[in-house]
Amino acid sequence: MNAEQDKMDFVILAAGDGKRFLSADPSSRRAKQFQLLAGRMVLLHSLDSISQWPSCGQIVIVLPQDGVEVDILNSLETAAKATTVPISFTPGGASRSASTWNGLKALSALIPNKLVAIHDAARPLVPHQVLNELLLACTGGADGAIPSLPMTDTVKHVDKTNKVLHTVDRSALRRVQTPQAFSFDKLFRLHQTNVDKGGKQTVTDDAGLAEAAGLTVVCVNGASQLEKITYAEDLNTMQNQQTEMRTASGFDVHRFSTEKPGPIMICGVAIEHEQGLMAHSDGDVGLHALCDAVLGTLSLGDIGQHFPPSDPKWNASSSDQFLQFALEKVKDAGGYVTLLDVTLICEDPKIGPHRDKIRQRLSEITGLPLHRLSLKATTSERLGFTGRGEGIAALAQATVCLPASYGRQE
After folding, report:
1. 223 and 172 both lie in a single domain
2. Residues 228 and 248 placed together within one structural domain of the fold
């Protein structure tokens, strides 16, 4: 299977009017998907998580058919330009299925990938592990795959007067979440058929159409982070319990070699220098410091614990794999990176002429847009080992957004 076949496109549904949310908070003028969560629009949390998934293809965001306020649209367009995957917008319809159909039509005009996932913007936290399982199920032969959680509460069957009729066996019941993934062609045809029939088939999710058509839909493991915001208190609960920002630092230093010639590696870029670096790997202080910073946000120790210098396996290894390993740990935890910042400390080589190339390479390594990557350089005013030209150092910081439940099981 080639890389293109591994890609999955997304339709993010953000066209709802949020009546249930607004009924509980009449003072709020904005639907739940445009409310702020941890200082960022709910919809943008979804966009951040999904767009940073390595197998994300392109994204269509379905907005209210009557349009949105100018400041919201400006924020969305700014975020779209900053992502590393193509983002487009289309108006929704009068119902969820109509909005999904509009999103699929917009995607069909963009040469879609073979797989598509439909996601509710009101589920702002999207763990990459769930997306990985959806992709695995669909590439493994299923027509569709949906994240789900087992029922943990006792379930009762009641009549119209709320009289209990009997207790339902919950062992075979699941709470279903989004995103829900399907073969694009099959889902497109299902919605087209439904529209041709006047849209009379009532479905609460896309899996319902697939089930009714006799397609094979499988459940994969969902996640508690994927809970949906329905009422105002849901947003308040999520504000207080579901997310937290973490910042950690990293530091690394390597000595210049009197025997080994350059170039030297700085944040994944080979830069000419008379002397090479003494190091077990490629000696990339920038990537090493960033790796430690990212691992620090997860309380996972430092680079030496995961890639010990005593192991010959890592001799002369490219350091981009170390940073990618740390970033994957963030994704596995259901989080995403909001900023990586690195300061290089040396008298020589001069970093300024290489700044743009280094930032672009960091973007390629991390999959992050440039506005989330900060690079600075300074000297130590001829003081200390860097001032004497004996080596190069790097100080880094990483800021990530994580589910607040991360690590509580320890």
Report:
1. yes
2. no
Single out the residue of 292, 278, 267, 275 nearest to residue 344, CA to CA: 267
Nearest to 51 by CA among 368, 370, 371, 404: 368
Reduce the secondary structure of 377-392 to three states and give it as a string: EECCCCCHHHHCCCEE
Name the pTM for this structure.
Answer: 0.65
Predicted local distance difference test score (pLDDT) of residue 408:
56
**Distance (Å, whole) CA 211 – CA 199:** 16
- CATH for 394: 3.30.1330.50
User: How far is it, in rounded angstroms, from Cα 124 to Cα 46?
Assistant: 4
CA dist., res. 136 & res. 180, Å (int): 13
CA distances from 34 to 21, 73, 202, 293 (A): 12, 10, 27, 32
| β-strand pairing of 164-168 with 155-158 | antiparallel
- In whole angstroms, what is the distance from residue 137 CA to residue 144 CA? 8
Of 194, 225, 241, the residue at which a domain comes to its end is 241
250 and 181 within one domain: no
| 143 in the same domain as 67 | yes
Nearest to 143 by CA among 134, 152, 151: 134
> Which amino acid does the sequence have at 12?
I
Does residue 409 form part of some domain? no
Whether the CB-CB separation of 370 and 363 falls below 8 Å is answered with yes
Q: Which residues contact 29 (CB under 8 A, 6 or more apart)?
A: none
Q: What's the Cα-to-Cα distance from 106 to each of 47, 59, 65, 110, rounded to whole Å?
A: 17, 10, 14, 7
Residues 232 and 366 in one domain: no
Q: Is residue 234 domain-shared with residue 333, that is, in the same domain?
A: no
For residue 257, the enclosing domain spans 244-403
95 plus 204 within the same structural domain: yes
Domain tally for the chain?
A: 2
Tokens of 273: 């220098």
Strand, coil or helix: 44:
helix
* 331-387 residue pLDDT tens: 888 788 999 999 999 988 999 999 999 999 999 999 888 889 999 999 998 999 888
